[in-house]
Write a structure and sequence with these properties.
By secondary structure, this protein is α+β, with helices and mostly antiparallel strands. 24% of the residues lie in helices and 24% in strands. It contains 3 helices and 8 strands; from the N terminus they run βαββαββββαβ. Strand 7, helix 3 and strand 8 form a beta-alpha-beta unit. It starts with a strand and ends in a 10-residue tail after the last strand.
Length: 135
């Protein structure tokens, strides 16, 4: 379960929420961001009533996450993740193709591959600098 707090929530509202979570045998994992505060609930959340949590002062909305890896699950996000790389945007509704060698071995090899990657239509050259299994 991921609980998103209102921007205007108070410290006492957060403490009350964390206490309610603990009372049900779960552990709150609070993330205080610059513009968003979320509480990830760790444990068996079946005893937590979403409606009761949603009704607490300071709570914006509650998402019941059914997948593992709650913090990186798309269920915990309000919008798709995007990453800016130079003039390019990775993620969201943008399609971007990356290509390159598994491991960079020389400047000449990298330049030949870079030209082939560009010619094939890929936008980003990627390459590994270290291969633990073979380096």
């Amino acid at each position: 379960m991921i609980i998103h707090l209102k921007k205007s929530h108070s410290k006492n509202q957060l403490l009350d929420l964390e206490e309610k979570i603990k009372e049900k045998g779960c552990k709150p994992h609070t993330i205080l961001g610059e513009s968003l505060t979320t509480v990830s609930v760790i444990g068996d959340t079946s005893k937590l009533n979403v409606g009761e949590i949603q009704a607490l002062d300071g709570v914006e909305f509650v998402t019941r996450v059914t997948k593992p890896f709650k913090l990186c699950s798309s269920e915990s996000r309000t919008k798709p993740t995007t990453i800016q790389v130079g003039d390019l945007v990775i993620g969201g509704n943008n399609f971007l193709s990356m290509a390159g060698p598994c491991s960079i071995e020389s400047e000449d090899q990298t330049m030949r591959i870079a030209h082939a990657v560009r010619k094939s239509g890929a936008s980003v050259l990627r390459g590994g600098a270290f291969k633990p299994r073979s380096s």
